[in-house]
Amino acid sequence: MLVENPVEELSGVHEDEDIRPGVIPRGLTRMVDEMYTDINNPAIANDEYFANRTILTTTNAVVQRINEAVAQRLEGVSQEYLSADSVEEDEEVNFFEQEVLHTVNINGIPPHKLTLKKGALIVMMRNLNPNLGLCSGTRLRIVELKPHVIHATIMTGERQGQHVLIPKIVFISDGGSRGFPFRLRRKQFPVQPAFAMTINKAQGQTVQNLGLYLFLAWSAVRRTVESDASVQVQGADRVPAARGGGRSVHRQHSVQADFRIGIKERYAA
Q1: 196-252 pLDDT, tens per residue?
Q2: Helices (H), the chain
Q3: Which region is the signal sequence (predicted)?
Q4: How far is Cα 114 from Cα 25, in angstroms, rounded to an integer?
Q5: E strand spans, 84-138
Q6: Is 91 exposed, middle or buried (CB count within 10 Å of its CB: 0-12, 13-18, 19+)?
Q7: Nearest to 262 by CA among 241, 250, 246
Q8: d(CA 87, CA 94)
Q9: What global pTM score does this model have?
């Protein structure tokens, strides 16, 4: 099943409005409700339930909003894990306060504050132990949160159902990442919440229940038209779920969701 919200025309809206702190994109509540209705029903929300569903969107910022929205619906107490941050070059250490380093977010490195819950979905950000199935992109479900390790089960693949312990590791950013005049050294768990993911990261994956959330400012539409993002959804149908119009497409066996074509059709002159 593919649950889709129509791309809305946001003429006159700043293209980054949907990623401002505290802003929840319109239509997100309904999308989350459609995809994770039974998240707290133990008779339904088992490992298979979570392994066969996700929400796709366009940017990491909106992924974060969706993960936060789903996590809020998940019953249980949140556990916060704080990273240990420093700079890689010893001679620069006195120039950057810890508070400044904590605010630095670099793609591919987990945040300073990682908020997790028992039962939540997470995804590996690095290859930790391929022999145990702990590779970048592996989806897991949290069994227990301990002070220094995360106890989780692998959700998919040959190691599905296997219990693993995930420790904190050291991440070191590339020189000059995002214009920072230092290399960040951060010790944190190599995971991030995985109720949602970007379209690019979903390429090549098979999902039975897929939520597609497109929230694009008008100024960003033309850039998206030129993108080549696509995802294969095996054995899926498409149904309308979010507010607004838009046509529904029902197909059997395999659905090719090509956003380049879809947006061209919607905004064709």
Answers
A1: 988 887 777 777 888 888 765 434 444 444 444 444 444 444 433 343 333 333 332
A2: 28-35, 47-51, 60-73, 98-102, 199-202, 218-225, 259-266
A3: none
A4: 22
A5: 84-87, 113-116, 121-124
A6: exposed
A7: 246
A8: 9
A9: 0.72
